[in-house]
Amino acid sequence: MTQKICVSILPKTLNEAHTLIKKAEQNQADLIEIRLDSLEQTINLSELTRSTKTPLIATNKPQTEKDDPATINKWQQTLIEAAKAGFQYVDVDFFSPKRDETVVKLKQLGTQPIISYHKFDGVLSVFALEKILNEQLLAGAAVCKIVLTANQIEDNLPILSFISFASTKAKLVCFCMGKAGKASRLLSPAFGAYFTFASLEHGDETAPGQMTITDMRIAYEVLGIEP
Fold first, then answer.
1. In the sheet where 196-198 sits, what is the strand order?
2. Is-above-0.90 flag for pTM?
3. What letter does residue 13 receive in the DSSP assignment?
4. What is the pLDDT along the chain (227 residues), one digit of tens a residue?
5. Distance in angstroms (rounded) separating the CA atoms of residues 6 and 90
C-alpha cells in the first residue's frame, strides 16, 4: 500500500501559491490541496494547474452562512471554475445544499469530486460512518472524505478499523483531527486510506493536529511503512 500524502496550502496571492506549490513539490508531495477561500484576489486558476504536474485539489470553504444563496452560488461557481481550469480533484462539502448538483457538473467537466464530511466535536459510530460513506457514494463521489475529531487517543482505534474494511469499496480519506488524532492521520494510509493530509512546515497547518510532510515521512521510515 502506497502512503500518499497531500500537502494543504493557504495562499493569499498567485505568487504565494506558486511558491508554496514549488515547496510542496520539493518535499515530494503526492497531491497538493489549494484552499481557494484563502485567496485575497481573483486569479486565473489555469495558471496554477499549468505550473505543476502534481495532482491538485481545489477546496473552497464558505466564509459566511451556508444558507445564504449568494454565498452558495459563489462557492459553486468557484469549484466549477477550478474544474474547467484542470484541477484533478474538487472538494464538495457534504452538507452543501447544492452538493449533488455540483458533483454532476464537476463530473461532466472531467474532474473527480471529493465529497467531504467534517465533524469538529468528536467521533461517530461505525454504523454512522457507513451511512455517511454510502450517501457519499450514491451522490457520485470519486473520493469519500470523512474527518472526525479525537478527544482521546482511543478514539482513533474504531476509525482505523473502519478504514480497513471501508477502503475496499471506496477511495476513502478518513482520520481524526486534533492533537489526539495524530495517530489516525499518520496511520490511515497504512490501513487502506487513499491519502492523508500534511502541512508544509510547522505553523502552516490548515487543520488542528496536522503534522508536517517531513515529520510524516520520518515517522513512516521509523515504523517501517513503505512510502
1. 172-177, 143-149, 112-118, 89-93, 56-59, 31-35, 5-9, 196-198
2. yes
3. S
4. 568 999 999 999 999 999 999 999 999 999 999 999 999 888 999 999 999 999 999 999 876 555 678 888 888 999 999 999 999 999 999 999 999 999 999 999 999 999 999 999 999 999 999 999 999 999 999 999 999 999 999 999 999 999 999 999 999 999 999 999 999 999 999 999 999 999 999 999 999 999 999 999 999 999 988 76
5. 13
